[in-house]
Every structure is written in structure tokens, then in C-alpha cells.
Write a structure and sequence with these properties.
Blueprint (H helix, E strand, L loop, with lengths): L1 E8 L1 H5 L3 H10 L3 E5 L6 H7 L9 H8 L5 E8 L1 H9 L12 H5 L8 E3 L3 H11 L7
Antiparallel strand pairs: 1-3, 1-4, 2-3
Helix pairs in contact: 3-4
Amino acid sequence: MSQRTFSIIKPDAVRKGYTAAILAAIEKAGFKIVTIKRMSISTAQAEGFYHVHAARPFFGELTRFMSSGPIFPMVLEKDKAIADLRLLMGATDPAKADEGTIRKQFASSIGENAIHGSDAEETAAFEIGYFFAGIELQ
């Protein structure tokens, strides 16, 4: 059964020109791109999105980074989309990521790690709704 998940190509990857290569890897892995858009978000919008990390020491750095340039939020679909995207992305630390993963290929650090992906169905539902209206999800 098909499942939807949420992902963002982050500002570091966009700045470095990796967007097309990341999208190609996502499609090669069998994901259908339901919707995608290019946009920029404010620090306040990034704080709302990452509210679950508000008490963490990296919160300010994370939200400043995510508002530092254009991003590509998207909704992806396939069987086991959440788990499969997590595998495709690789470990948060690109030095620990498996060969062939997006982060191993395109990320430069734990903080600038090229891509975000939902970690659970509840998270995906919140994140999809944060960036996309229902009409965009058909």
C-alpha cells in the first residue's frame, strides 16, 4: 500500500546546485513526487516547523540555516515511503552515512546535511500540512 512522506532539499544543497541530482536519486529509488515547490522561509517559519527541537542547543543554528536560502519542500509517495526515504537519505552525519546515500554524496556536515525527511507517519502528516494546502496534494 502506498504511503506519503515529506522531504526538503535544504539550503546548502540548493546553493551548491545539487537539487537536480537529489531529485534524480529520489525518483531512481522509486518515489513519485506528488508535489514540490521552491520557496524561502523566515526564521519564525523555520521555528514553527522545527518546534519539537525548541529546547535543543542546536535549535537557533538550525532555524537560521533553514531560513538562509531557498529550499525545495516536497511530498513523496511509494510503498514504505518513510522508511525507504530514511535509508536513501543516510545518517545525519555524512561521515557516518552509507555509500550511495544522499547525505554521503551531497552533505558537508551534521548541520548542513542536504535533505530532511519525516521520521514517522504523524510527523509526515504535520510536515506536509505545514507546507502544502490540500489542493496541492491531488
